[in-house]
Each structure stands twice: as structure tokens, then as C-alpha cells.
Amino acid sequence: MTDLLSIADLQEGAVAEILALSERTDLGRPLEGKGVALVFQKPSARTRNSTEMAVVQLGGHPVYIQKEEVGIDTRESAEDVARTLACYHAIICARVMDHRHLVRMAGAVEVPVANLLSDRDHPFQALADLLTVKQLLGRLEGARIAWIGDADNNVARSLAQACVAVGAELTLASPDGYRLSDPPYGVRQVADPAEAVEGAEFVYTDVWVSMGQDEEAEARRQAFAAYQVNEALMARAGNAWFLHCLPARRGEEVTHAVMESPRSAVWRQAENRMHTARGALAWLAGVR
Ligand code: CP
Ligand code: NVA
After folding, report:
1. Which of 81, 150, 163, 215 could join 170 via S-S bond, C-beta 3.0 to 4.6 A?
2. What pLDDT score was predicted for residue 102?
3. What contacts 89, CB < 8 A, 6 or more positions away?
4. Helix, strand counts (H, E) of the chain
5. Residues 11, 97: one domain?
6. How far away, in angstroms, is 70 Cα from ligand 1 center?
7. Residues 36-47: pLDDT tens digits?
8. Beta strands in 202-244 (DSSP E)
9. Average pLDDT over the chain, rounded to an integer
10. Ligand 1 mean position to 178 CA, how many Å?
């Protein structure tokens, strides 16, 4: 069974297949009578709601499970949690603190396991990001995207892998110590935000302090102080669209004015989380 733990694990062409399914309105009810487990070890607004509604739209029944209810590696092992959930569900989705838990869960069961965000990856987010770029630009091939800020986080990593998969051009701007540690071939990394946004059609940022990094908060805020996406940086980019996976910390990585500008596509991105979750779940259920 195919899993969706990381964009990099997918076979060639799979990202385009999922995006094509995400744009279709005739997928029917491939999950009719089936359950989908949604395990969350961290908070979520977009991912929980978009995935839950996507399951409903595909005719399935989502079961939202908080971390204490299953206790991955505390109440029972990650493998035993997965094997239990596989008794009832056609797909297991999980948001985890440690990506290795997902790998172990996927290794223990036959049903597909999907990553709803880990410390390493956020593949469902990257699918929504690409759909947003495609809608706004009309194509993905050659799309020019600049990422500003923490380039070694889950959202940046999945975006980099997704851009390479579809031929989009990604430049990551980050300070020393926060560069993407495993960049796929073709992704450019620079230090200067102004250099990254030169000629960009999209400017993307994410929080400076991701979930689970609270102890590093002060050091991170200092390191990223010159990496705020504000009106001056957007002006250097010309007429670029602004992207953010959300939640945003207005006044830190992005200003209120940029979030609210007519070129901000963040709510379209948020809506696209549901369409791409539907496409991804249908794909995992075998729809092509
Ligand atoms: N973008 C995103 O994953 O948002 P949530 O953390 O609210 O799910
Ligand atoms: N990088 C952020 C993304 C939230 C959707 C985090 O992991 O907290």
C-alpha cells in the first residue's frame, strides 16, 4: 500500500496525479462505509477541519483522536496503535511530534498512513501550496517561489520536494544555521531575502518558532529578525503573491499589512487544504 509520509517518497508523477484529483468534482464516494483515523499529537485548525471534511466529501467517516486517547509509545507502542486503528479504518492519518513514529506506524500496517505534519514534513500543506500556485499562475512549471525565514522546517522541506517534483523554481532565504539541511537538487539557498524575492512570483513564509520549539523561541526571534516579510520586501518582489501556511504571527514573520494586502493568497491556500486533502485521500484509496 502507498503511504504519504513525505513528498520525496512518492513515485514520479504522483504529485501531478494528486493535484489533478484535487481539481475534480466527480470523485464520488470511494470511502463509502469506511473509516479514516485522524490522530493529532499537536494542535490544528486547518489540517483537522480540512481533512475531516475531505473524508466526509468522499463518503467516509472521520474519527478525530487526541494524543492522550492512543498514547503513541506511552500507552502502547506506535506499531500497536497503528495495528489497532487498521482494524477499523481504511486510512490512518497522524500529526506527530517525531517523524519516526509515522515511519514505524506505516511499517506495521497494510492500510495507507498519511502525514498530517511531523517535525520533518508537511506534505498535505505542500499539495495545497502547489494547487494555489497553479490556480493563480495557470501553471507550475517554471513558477518562481521565494521562501523567507526558517528554511529547515517541515513546511519548507515539503515545499522544496514538491517544487522539484513539478518543475517549479524555489529559492530559500535563511540565516546561517537555518538552511534546509537536505535540499533536493535544483533548490537554491541564499542568505539575503532581497536576493531571494528578485523576480519571484510568490513570496512564502512560515512562523519562526514551530510547534515543539518553544525552548528555542528567543534565539530564533533574534536569528530571523531581518527576515520579516513586510511591505518593503514585497515591493522589491514587484507584484508577487504572498503565501503563508498559517497560523501566522503578525508582527513577527509577516506584517498585518502584507497579510491583508490584495496580493495575499493565504485564505485561498487554507481553502485548498480541503481540496488537496480530498485529492490525496482519494489517491490513497486507489482512485486515479
Ligand atoms: N497549516 C496548517 O497545517 O495549519 P494547522 O496547524 O492549523 O492545521
Ligand atoms: N512550521 C509550523 C507549521 C504549522 C502548520 C509548525 O510546525 O508549527
Report:
1. 163
2. 98
3. 34, 35, 36, 37, 63, 111
4. 12, 9
5. yes
6. 21
7. 999 999 999 999
8. 202-205, 241-244
9. 98
10. 21
Q: Give the closest residue (by CA) to ligand 2 atom 7.
A: 210
Statement: residue 97 has pLDDT above 70: yes
Residue 185 alpha carbon to ligand 2 centre in Å? 24
Neighbours of 235 (CB within 10 A): 11
Q: Which residues of 19-50 are buried (b: 16+ CB within 10 A; e: fewer)?
A: bebbeeeebeebbeebbbbbbbbbebebbbeb
Q: Examine the pLDDT at 1 and tell me if it is beyond 90.
A: no
Residues 131 and 197 in one domain: yes
**Co-location of 135 and 206 in the same domain:** yes
Sheet hosting strand 35-40, strand order edge to edge: 61-66, 35-40, 89-95, 113-115
> Which residues form ligand 2's pocket by a CB distance below 6 Å?
117, 153-155, 206-207, 210-211, 245
How much is the average pLDDT of 152-158?
Answer: 98
Looking at ligand 1, which atom is closest to the CA of residue 124?
3
In a domain, 2, yes or no: no
Residues catalogued as catalytic? 95, 122, 125, 206, 245, 273
Query: Is residue 117 in contact with ligand 1, taking CB distance under 6 Å?
Result: yes
Phi, psi of 25 (to 5 degrees): -115, 10
CA distance 19 to 176: 34
Residue with cell 494586502: 261
Tell me: the pLDDT tens digits for 24-68? 999 999 999 999 999 999 999 999 999 999 999 999 999 999 999
**pLDDT surpasses 90 at 9:** yes
Answer yes or no: is 1 within a domain.
no
Residue nearest to atom 6 of ligand 1 (CA): 44
Q: How far apart are CA 72 and CA 102, in angstroms?
A: 10
Ligand 2 mean position to 155 CA, how many Å?
7
Helices (H), 109-216: 123-137, 154-166, 193-197
